[in-house]
Task: structure prediction
Amino acid sequence: MLSHQLPALPPFESFWEELPKLFGWLEGTHKVEKLEPIPLGVRDEEPGMWTPPPIVWTWSVGAPLEIIRFAASNHLCVQLGYDGTTRIIEPYSLRRTRDGNLLLHAIRIDSREHRSYRVDRIQSIEVTTQPFRPVYKVEFSHTGTIQAPPTIRTTRQS
Result:
C-alpha cells in the first residue's frame, strides 16, 4: 500500500531475514556489527562538517539527493546514469572535495570497487528493489538534513 509514496519498495524477504537479528538485539543476544566508513578519496580534503539545508533537493546539483538517501538508508541499490552509461551501485556517503564538489561514494555491484561520482554530473538515478548488505557504514541519516561528514586526513611525517 506504500508503493505510491516511496521511490521503490524494499523486498519483503530482506526484512523477513533481518527479524531474527532484530529480536536478538532486543533480547541482548545479538550485537550489531560496527562498520567503518568508506575510505576517503584522494580529493576528499574539505575540513570540518558541511550540512546542506533540508531543501537540498531544490538545488540545481543535477541529482535528487533525497532519492539517494532513501536508497542508502533502506540498503537498496541504485541504478546510476553517469558518463553516458548506467551502473548499479550501493550508496554509502556524500562528501565534499577540497575544491567544493559534492561526491557520492559508492560500491559498484559488478566490480565491488569503491567509486566516487560528482553529484553535479549524475545524469539519472533510479532506486532498485535489489537490497545490499552494507560493507561500510552508511553515512546517510534516515531523517533530517543530508550531511557530508568531515574528511580530514592525517599526514605522515618523513
About this structure: The CA atoms of residues 123 and 136 lie 25 Å apart. The chain has one domain: 1-39+65-141. The longest strand covers residues 85-96.
